[in-house]
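Appendix B. Chain record.
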Amino acid sequence: MNLDPKTVLPPVISVGDLNALTRALIEENLPLAWIAGEISNFTRAASGHCYFSLKDERAQVRCVLFRNRAQLLDWQPANGARVEVRAVPTLYEARGEFQLNVDFLRRAGLGALFEAFERLKRKLEAEGLFAVGRKRPLPSFPRTIGVVTSRRAAALRDVVTTLARRMPSIRVIVYPTQVQGEGAARQIADALALAGRRAEADVLILCRGGGSLEDLWSFNDEAVARAVATSPIPIVTGVGHETDFTVVDFIADARAATPTAAAELASPDGIALARRLGATGQALSQVFHRGLERRMLDLDVLARRLRHPGERLAHQRELLAHLGARLAAAWMRGEQVHVRRLRECARRLVLGGPDLARLQERRRGLLLRLRNAQRSHLGEWRALLVSRSAALEHLNPQAVLERGYAIVRDSHGAVVRDATQLSPGDDVEIALASGAVDARVRSTRSGRGD
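Structure tokens predicted for this chain:
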């Protein structure tokens, strides 16, 4: 509702009324908005409230961030930091100062990430991946829980500690992956796919500790979101803190505020179950004892009606024989259970040991293949050596000389290939197959075959 000061102001008003009216006008006409600027004059009071100024090159405005909101920050604001605040403009009536009541504070530059987050969120929601009808119920008593997170993450310790406290009998399988930085989204999607293929777990916990929007961005990746959507195993997410929301939180079958809460959501409370079991056992025991007492009373009445002691002794013998048979049967059942467990352990031990005979046979086969390969390679190299030797022998100049040819060199030692290289009177050396001859040219003839 817009207030018109001309219609609501009396002729004379107090300062308090004026400030109250001004505050109402500001808050009703200026909605919640994002404002960007630089922090200055930042102080944190003993109460936990934060006071600072938000400025740019043209103006500044006072801001207050109350303690309940300041505690949700995962980073420490400081003077000079470029930030974006989500705030409601208002007036501090006691001093008549215009200020911003900050609802959320983030470092500048995160707006683009929020826009990308909202775009992907709208896209997946339009595809029906956020629909409540597609979410699967979590198993009430899972035997195995898979955890998809980093091995070094504190979130893994929190989950394992919580599961050990609530239900120590649950088997935990860790599918390690990087949860932050370059390549983390691909690793998370691959880990979820691996868990689905192996089908070892009854439920999966996808988790990591708190962090900034950039730290949690891998969980806003479309590939990770679709891996969560297509997982054949129900998934519980526990990413960041209670105020942190990622795309996978909307797709998962259940969302927890923290990794610890995710572990509590995925596992039954062993202590509560033990209490319920104890109470049920106590109630059954009371019913049993009351029934037993009634039957004992009936037995006493019947016993008193018996007249012959021999019949009473016979009845006691029958009862003793019956109890003995029950005891023997219980003993046999217990022995059979232990024998089955022992056999299963022996079978698992045998299956887990190495097959020495198969390994030895494989070793012999590899040795045989190695020897055959050596012989084959040696034969190939020997044939190649013979071939190359024959080629070299064919090209050997000495073999040509042995067939009656000669090599003529001039006085400079150069090989003479054409008669035009020599003139009558030149000295030459004629190399034969055995020895050499010095000669002098009397005449020359040109051409081949002349």
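Further analysis of this model is presented in Appendix C.
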